[in-house]
Design brief:
It is a single chain. By secondary structure, the protein is mainly alpha-helical. It contains five helices and no strands. Helix 1 packs antiparallel against helix 4, helix 2 runs antiparallel to helix 3 and helix 4 crosses helix 5. The longest helix is centred in the C-terminal third of the chain and has 30 residues. The model has no long low-confidence stretch (mean pLDDT 84).
């Protein structure tokens, strides 16, 4: 009877640590938030500054999707509160996403590829939803 030498009962080691994957998953929203905050919220300007502020708002909402909670008219908050709330409540979602991708990835290249697909899909879906809402609103 031939012996199959490919079978191993040794525990498999993961090449992508879950904690590192979770922490690394925070890079995309962090970059978006930095770009959004660099638009300058406190200074006045012409229409190009207004457009930059609108684009920064969209970038921030893509990076911190929980900031929509504070958009109701009966909630009176400052910009600082929206920023802090959005960042603090959205960071765990991105971290858990990175951990979930790391759990299913055997190497960093696979993790990066899957994370890039998720980030591009998330951004495209948000822009599509914002476009549909803008079209419906007139």
């Amino acid at each position: 009877m031939p012996v199959n030498e490919d079978v191993s009962f040794a525990p498999r080691t993961r090449a992508v640590p879950r904690v590192s994957g979770g922490i690394l998953a925070l890079t995309y929203p962090t970059v978006l938030i930095i770009v959004a905050l660099s638009a300058g919220f406190r200074r006045g300007g012409d229409m190009t500054d207004f457009a930059a502020t609108m684009a920064a708002t969209v970038l921030f909402l893509i990076a911190a999707p929980t900031a929509w909670v504070l958009s109701f008219s009966f909630i009176d908050v400052t910009r600082f509160t929206v920023l802090v709330f959005g960042i603090v409540t959205s960071a765990p979602f991105w971290y858990v996403l990175g951990v979930a991708i790391a759990r299913r990835s055997m190497d960093w290249l696979t993790w990066i590829r899957r994370y890039a697909v998720v980030c591009v899909s998330w951004t495209a879906a948000n822009l599509l939803i914002i476009g549909v809402i803008a079209t419906l609103a007139g």
